[in-house]
Each structure stands twice: as structure tokens, then as C-alpha cells.
Model the fold of this input.
Amino acid sequence: MTQEVIFEQEKILKSPWGGGKSPFGVSREKFTMWIFILSDAFTFGGLLAGYGALRASLPSWPSRLEIFSAFPFINAKLPLLFVSIMTFILICSSLTMALAVDAGKRMDKKGVIKYLLLTIGGGFLFLLCQAYEWGHLIHEGARLTSNPWGVPLFSASFFVITGFHGSHVLSGVIVLIIMAIRVAKGIYDKRGSYEGVEVAGLYWHFVDLVWVFIFAFFYLL
Amino acid sequence: MTGHEHSQVEVHHKEGFIRKYIFSTDHKTIAKQYLITGIIWGFIGMILSWFMRLQLAYPNQPIPLLEKILGGWAEGGILKPEFYTALITMHGTIMVFFLLTAGLSGTFSNYLIPLQIGARDMAFPVLNMLSYWVFFAASVVMLISFFVQTGPAGAGWTMYPPLSALKNAVPGSGFGTTLWLISMALFIVSSLLGALNYITTTLNYRTKGMSMGRLPITVWGMFVTAILGLLSFPVLLAGAVMLIFDREFGTSFFVPSGLVLGGQPVPHEGGNPILWQHLFWFLGHPEVYIVLLPAVSIVGEVLATNSRKPLFAYKICVGAIIGIGALSMIVWGHHMYVSGMNPILGEIFVVTTLAISFPTAILIFNYLVTVWRGSLRFTPGMLFALGFLGLFIPGALTGAFLATAPVDIQLHDTYFVVAHFHFTMATAAAFGMFAGVYHWFPKMFGRMMNDKLGKIHFWGTFIGVYLIFFPMFFQGIAGVPRRYYSFTEYNFTSQFIGLNKFITIAAFIAGAAQFIFLFNFFWSMFKGPKADKNPWKANTLEWQADSPPPHGNWGPELPVVYRGPYEYSVPGAEEDYIPQTASIKVEAK
Ligand code: HEM
Ligand SMILES: [Cu+2]
Done:
């Protein structure tokens, strides 16, 4: 009997779920970022589902090919080209983010800073593009309450959803700038781990992924 | 970095008053802050309900005292209709969110999770402190809304548009609703910060030997609650964002075309008020389990300890809690049977809703078996835990009526629903909370609460709430609608005037009993007899710490766990309880 009990206890202590350690072998920061992302995904899910339900209930929806066809400095109609480039920029920034994390794993401080700066640049460029797109639509007469192309809910959901996403990009850029400063100060070298960069990277990938959904559901479909 | 940086925390360091009691990062202090804030909200909410009850018992009869207290809201001593709707809104909001969500989860998740899993504090103590202070800010904003000129929000705690979306729909739709939305946005942030902490702490900070299968049922309850909050509050946030845009910037997410308000056509077009109902109830239904699960798990712990018996079928209880949590995310449509949803969709929600009765029933039966033939100790905590069963069972049974769409079409928006949720959620959860307070008070404050006063409090409350809410089932079956200002106009409602008076008197008696609790709580905090480490002879870890536990909870070494939490009355053991820290040799025989 005693033998069995000791055996049971040893089994528990060995198991990843037996206490005294993280069952997934990750730090509290990383784990918390995962579940924060899960929660935030539900916020976007709520917004997108609401948008979808409203759109389905309306008899007509403006043609995005017509509306999103402007391009800076070019006087031709280029349907969806600009927003595709925006999407491409954001995806590239995800790539550079991954490279930054990778450099961090190799404790390559210079590499981390380089790729972080590239990622920040990508995010910033994306925000600039978005500002252009918003400005253009507003110039054409789009408001929260009405727009020249049809149902008012079109512009309302456009501004609310892309605005909500844009604010996420903005906070991501700010977080990455803070990370870059911390890396430059050598904080992670001292800690012996660049995990902080990895955690910020998780958030960045998430924000990019959400954009892909917005791109698909708002612009393409 | 993985989990145990806390074990190096030095155990004693002196702190100033502000760091110790106000901006404290100690989970135990934060828990007390939540508890006391929650109690204050509970009393505010209760007093609001008295005003409603006075109106229902004495419609159109001047009560001069009311004018003295409420001023312009009760000119000539008669409550104004728009203030009545503001009262139901604020009563519901305060009780559901501020008392039974923040007050209940905030207190017991904070207090029990680290202590019962053998951690020194939460994973992120500073975020934890922020979570309380953001909740505090939400509280202040909600309180301010009582003092704006057009009164607080008046669209009900569910904030259905268009009442909530159009600023001049009713007086409360103005600034009051704006403040309501700001307060709830803060509340959501606070609950998110809390949930992140609770989940990470439970998973990453269990001490050695505290496997998931050895967690006390309370920790399981709080853990599943936190997951529900994490996943459902953000959807309310999404809805709230759209509602704020509708109100402040003229969009029409929730406002349909063709509304006329005060003779004027409303400029909005194309929105859908039902969308709000979906988004709201996607939170709203899990929310009722966010309220219930902490209470039900506290009750399980208190019942087992005071029956001196193992919690019956621990694993199945845990499974039931997880099952309830999972199912609660897919039943929200049962609040909307009459809102014009597709009947096939409605039928699906009937099935999922009835399905949730199974894990609920299993859990409650397990509790009954736990108590069955135990050597019961009738402490006040135990009485409230038993009282919980006595309230929850009729409440949950009537849920099955409401879940069936054809029956609900008759019962929806009547006092039957009011009675249902006051039994299941309101009073049952409050009883769970009381059970928790009586049970863990000695640990929290190092002193015992007065037993006699506790028992008087229990009987006053239990009999009181039964007299208040049980008659409402009959009113509801007779068709009396909820949220009405006065019931004098129709025969089928005015026949209950006498009963309404009776309920109101019961409400005042049950309310008076709460002041006994209040006195007992504060008096015992300073004057109660000193409690020793383990006054209830319980197994879980917190009873191995001092009462109250010091900053950092444990001595230099973290406790190590060798067994499950419910080894009570083990045959052959020296005592009728074996603490989780008792190492293997104790059991050898
Ligand atoms: C056990 C099975 C349960 C079932 C089948 C059930 C079913 C229902 C249904 C169908 C309604 C909608 C009635 C209507 O508005 O016409 C309802 C309302 C409600 N239920 Fe339950 N319920 C159950 C348990 C609970 C529990 C455990 C709680 C809380 C802890 C709860 C809290 C509420 C609340 C607050 C409302 C009313 C919300 C409002 O309209 O303001 N119910 N229930
Ligand atoms: Cu429900």
C-alpha cells in the first residue's frame, strides 16, 4: 500500500501537470499573451460577426471593386491593388518579426534590433497607407452616418472595424518600439533570454492575422 | 522563469499604510478590497430594490418619506415612472456585475486561488492591483450616474436598443446610459485583467504535487469562471463599441429604419436591434454562470468540509463544472425566443439549453450525496451552503420550463422569469457568497464571526427570500409582466396588490437581516475571538497557513502536496481529516 502511494506521488511529480512547473513549459508572460490573444480574437469575432449579420440582412451592399480602386499619385482605377499592397506590407512585417524572434533565440542583439526596426517600419507604413485610404474615402464623401455608394452601414462598419484594427496596429508599433529600446539597452542580454521579444511578436502576428480576415471579409467577399 | 520566481521572494518586509492597505499587490488584501466594495454595492442594490417594492405595494399612494430621500424623483411622495425603470436597471446591473461578478469572483478567486494551490501570490501582482482599481473606477462612474440630471440608465440591465441607442428615447437614455457604457467598458477591462491572472496562476503556479486532479473544487470553479469571462466579455465589448458609435456618432448598427420618436422620424437606417440581443446574450448567458460557478464551487467545498465526508465523485463534479462552462457558451438564444428568431434556430437553443440541465443536475446530486449521512456541523457557512441547495433546486427546475420555447412564449418577460433567476442566480449565488464569507472569514481576518448572529442572519434571509420570490412564480403564471411600473390597471394584475404588499414586507425583513450580517462582519473583524490556523479542521492548503497568512503566504518553503483535498473520515486514520500536505507515512497502516 505504502509502495503504491509513493509510486503515485512520484508519477504526479514527474507529470507536466503535477505542479511546481508550467504544464506547457512556458513562462507566465507567454502563456498570458496566448490567452489574451484568444480573448481579443473574440472581440474581433464579435465585430466581424455583427458586420456579417447586418450585411446579410441588407438588400444590397456597395461594390468594393469600385470603391477601393484609388492609388496615390496615379490617376487610374486599380481595383483593390492598394489594399493588397497594404496586406502584403503587413505580412512582410510578420516575416521580419519572425526573423527578429529567431535572432533573439541566437542571442544576436544586432539582428534583433535590425529586424525589429524593419517590423516597426512595416507597421508604420501600414498605418500611413490606412491613413491615406481613410482620407481618400472621407474626401469622396464617406462618413460614419452616410456614404455616396449606398447603405450607411457600409461606411460605418468600415470605419469601426478598420479603426479598431488600426488601433491594435498602433499599439503594436508602440510596444515594438519599447521592445527595441529595451533590447538596445541590453536588458534581454542580461536576462539571457529574448523571450520578451517573442511575446511581443505573438501579439504582432495576431494583429496581422486579424487583418487577413478583415481583408477577406470586408474587401474581397 | 517558469513558474517559481515567487519562491525566492523574501517573506517579510515592512510596508507603509498605503502600500499595505490601499495600493497593495498582495492578493489577500486585494480580495478584501473586492469583498468590501462588493458588500457596499450589495447594500446599495438592496436599498434600490426597497424603493421598487414600495412602488409595487403602494402604487400611486404618496409616501412623504420617499420625497425626502429621493427629492425630485418622487415628487409628492410618488415615485416617477422613469425613475422606476432606472431603478430596475441599476439594481440589475449592480447586483449582477458589481456584487455577484466582481464582488464574488474578485474576492474568492483572489483569495483562494493562490492559497489553495500553494502559491505566494498571483502570477502578475501589479496587474491584479490594477484590476481592482479599474473596477473601482467603474464603480465610481456608475455611482456618478445616479446624480446626473436625467437620472441613471433606464433600459434594463440588458441595455436593449433602441432605448439604449437613441439619446432621447427615455430620460435615462441620455447621459445616464453614456456613463453606464463607460462604466461597463472599464468593468470589462478589469475583468479581463483578473481573468488573465486567475488562469495563468492556476495553471503555472500550482505547488509541487498539486496536480489538476488534486485541486480543490473551488479552484476549479474559479478557473472555469475565469475562462468564461475571458471569452464572453470581449463580445460584449464589441457590442458596446457599436452601441457607443450608434449613440455618439449617429451610426445605425442597432437602430432600424423607420423609427419615429416624439413625432419625429429618426434619421438612422438599416440597423438591427436583434443583433445587440445576440451580442449581449453571448455574454449574458455565460455571465449567469460566471456568477453561479464560484458560488456553487464554494458550496461544494463548504459542504464537504462540514459533512466530514469526501466530496462525492470529485472527478464527475469537475467534469460537470467544465461541461456547464462549455455548454453555457451555446445557449444564449433561449433569452430570445420571442424576439422573432428563426424557429429552427430556436429549437436548437431549446436542445442545448435542456442539455445544460444534465451537468447541473449531476453536480447538485453529487452535493446531495456528499451531505447524505455525513456528520453535519451546522456552522453558519454550512447553513448557507445548504440554503444554496434549497434555493437553487427550484430555480433550476423552473429553468427547464423556460427553456422549452412553447412554454416560454407564455412566460417570457413575466414575473416567472424574475422568480427563476432570483432563485438560481441572485439569491443562490448570494448564499454561496455568504457561505464563503462565513467559512473563510477566520482565515481572512484571523478572527471568528459570531455564530449566533450568523444563524439568525441565515434564517432571516432564507425565509425572507423564499417569501419574496416564491409567490412570483404564481404571479408570472398568471401573466403579470416584469419591469412594469404599476399594476393597478388590469384585473389580472391588480388582483395581486395584497400579495405585493406581503412581498414588500418580506423584502424589508430579509433586508433587515442583512444589517445583522453587516454588524457581525465588522464587529468580528476587530472584536471576534481569535481564530487558530484550522478552525474547521479542513484539508486544503490555506488552512496550513497562519490566520491571517503573512505576506507571501508560506514560510521560506512552499508546501508540498501529497493527496487530494477531500480525505475526510478516512477509515483507520487518526483524525477525521488528512491535510493535503500530510506526507505519505501518515496514511500507512
Ligand atoms: C439549469 C438550467 C437552466 C435553464 C434551463 C435556464 C433557462 C432559462 C431561460 C430559458 C431563460 C429565459 C426566460 C425568458 O426570458 O423568457 C432564463 C432566464 C434567466 N436565467 Fe436561467 N436557466 C437555467 C439556470 C440558470 C442559472 C443557473 C442562472 C444563474 C446563475 C440563470 C439565470 C437566469 C437569468 C438572470 C435570466 C433572466 C435574464 C433577463 O431576462 O434579465 N438561469 N433561464
Ligand atoms: Cu440564459
